[in-house]
Specification:
Layout (H helix, E strand, L loop, with lengths): L1 H15 L4 H10 L4 H12 L7 H17 L2 E9 L2 E13 L7 E3 L6 E10 L5 H7 L7 E4 L7 H21 L3 E5 L22 E4 L1 H12 L4 E12 L2 E10 L4 E11 L9 H20 L6 E8 L7 H9 L7 E6 L7 E5 L4 H11 L21 H5 L4 E6 L4 H4 L12 H20 L10 H10 L2 H6 L4 H6 L7
Parallel strand pairs: 4-5, 5-6, 6-7, 10-11, 10-12, 12-14
Antiparallel strand pairs: 1-9, 2-8, 3-7, 4-8, 9-11, 13-14
Length: 483
């Protein structure tokens, strides 16, 4: 079935190919490869991979073995995670005007509790006006926050930005805890991060949308409710984790590096298929085909399976810190992390020189397009620390497909992956990577701290950074990015 699904596209490419290394690599990736089998094994056999979990450590060794079997030079690179957070189980009970047990899941970094109970109040959308309305009643109460239904990536980014403001107001009000209505229908649960990361001191949960609406209807009809919750989590001290880094050494300029990567960790409610197992399988498949086809890039290509991404981009941060003296030799880094919808172009980080270079490279693979590259900086995946260290960075921009509704959710499973698009995306990413590795005229100088600060000032980077797990404070305090 896989061969039949792609045969016409592959033949079209072959007919137009000029027998270059790029053509050979694209043809190989569009043909029969084990990418689907790898993805199914990662998702169905190993499963969801929260950083620090047994499954996460299994996936590290799995990725290492996949590269080794492909003949790729590979290593596990150790780094320190600042702490451990895993959920065992969470449960809730509504009592008062109605009584039932809603479906809930803890936010990452939520405090655990053996069982606490308090009044549940209608927090509206969690705006300043909503907390003013609640006044002193908010103190010592659980606050239920209404959400809009999530339909696209814009809505997802809004959820993250809103949560920072909501949680700041909740702390100021002295609440007992925060309850978010799930933004997904059909009683679907997911996991987001509490905005204060490891500094969070409140219990926070997601409640199934239909259950939360039932509570709000009761409260808005003058009924009173109490919420009892039990959150069983494992919290621990700093510990060692690992990135998996494969490498194909450059034939002419081995000291110059092109990196492509995807994050290995995922949340455990689903099996981390679109976020981000499909693109992990892509990294392995590209490296495997390059070795199989004896592709010899002029610059060194590194294939990164980052870890600790979901908790705060810690794996890629550790890489940039460790390799800081050599970052001037890093020509380009790419993160692929928006699911399996077909790639329509790349985000080029608010750098006209990166945009110009990327336009040139994708201009050589028009048969796989069309492509529109967008020159804005984005926060939220493993490009971030490279960007803040001044290294040219790309993020694959995908057709949204079903990415947002399944993001971090129970439904992020193998069957949601667009396997045909994943194959085509593999060819696109490989071609762009090889383009940057082989075109020695492409030079993207590392930006200075002053240039990076100007990028922050001239774009919405500050706003984005403030919505992401404390990374704004880390940047301002000099703990992150170029010094």
């Amino acid at each position: 079935m896989r061969k039949l699904a792609l045969i016409s596209f592959t033949l079209m490419w072959v007919l137009s190919a000029q027998n270059s290394e790029t053509d050979k690599l694209v043809e190989g990736l569009l043909g029969d490869t084990p990418i689907e089998e790898d993805l199914q094994e990662l998702c169905d056999v190993i499963g969801g991979r929260p950083t620090g979990s047994k499954a996460n450590f299994l996936s590290i060794d799995w990725g290492l073995e996949k590269f080794q079997k492909a003949g790729v030079s590979v290593s596990k690179e150790e780094f320190t995670m600042p702490g451990l957070w895993l959920e065992n189980e969470s449960a809730a009970e509504i009592s008062g005007a109605v009584e039932f047990e809603p479906r809930v899941a803890a936010l990452t970094f939520s405090t655990g509790t053996l069982g606490i109970k308090a009044e549940l109040l209608d927090g509206g959308h969690g705006t300043a006006d909503d907390f003013t309305r609640l006044g002193e009643n908010a103190k010592g109460s659980f606050i239920l926050i209404e959400t809009d239904e999530l339909v696209d990536l814009d809505g997802l980014f809004k959820e993250y930005a809103d949560a920072v403001l909501i949680e700041d107001l909740a702390y100021e009000a002295g609440v007992k805890g925060v309850v978010y209505m799930s933004s997904r229908p059909m009683r679907l649960l997911y996991r987001h991060n509490a905005s204060r990361s490891f500094e969070n001191t409140l219990p926070m949960i997601i409640m199934a949308r239909e259950d939360a609406k039932r509570c709000l209807r009761t409260l808005r009809n003058d009924g009173s409710l109490s919420l009892g919750i039990k959150i069983d989590v494992i919290k621990g001290e700093p510990y060692k984790s690992y990135n998996v880094i494969g490498e194909i050494e450059g034939s002419e300029r081995p000291e110059e590096i092109v990196i492509i990567g995807a994050h290995l960790d995922s949340w455990g409610l689903g099996t981390g298929a679109n976020d981000n197992g499909c693109n992990v399988a892509m990294m392995i498949d590209i490296a495997r085909q390059m070795i199989k086809l004896d592709i010899k890039p002029k610059r060194t290509i590194r294939f990164a399976l980052w870890n600790g991404e979901e908790l705060g981009l810690y794996g890629s941060m550790a890489y940039t810190d460790k390799n800081e003296p050599q970052l001037g030799n890093h020509i380009m880094t790419m993160s692929v992390d928006i699911g399996s919808g077909q790639i329509t172009g790349f985000f080029t980080g608010g750098r006209p020189d990166v945009l110009e270079a990327t336009n040139k490279v994708v201009g050589e693979i028009t048969e796989l397009g069309p492509f529109t590259n967008i020159d804005i900086p984005l926060v939220g995946t493993d490009n971030f620390d490279f960007m803040m260290h001044g290294v040219g960075n790309l993020i694959g921009n995908h057709d949204p497909a079903n990415y947002a509704p399944n993001y971090h959710a129970e439904s992020d499973t193998y069957d949601k992956v667009d396997l045909k698009s994943l194959k085509i995306n593999s060819a696109i990413v490989a071609a762009v990577t090889l383009g940057f590795a082989n075109d020695l005229s492409l030079s993207l100088p590392r930006q200075s701290r002053k240039e990076i600060e100007e990028l922050v000032k001239s774009t919405d980077l500050e706003q984005q950074m403030r919505s992401m797990m404390g990374i704004w404070d880390q940047w301002k305090e000099g703990k992150r990015g170029r010094q």
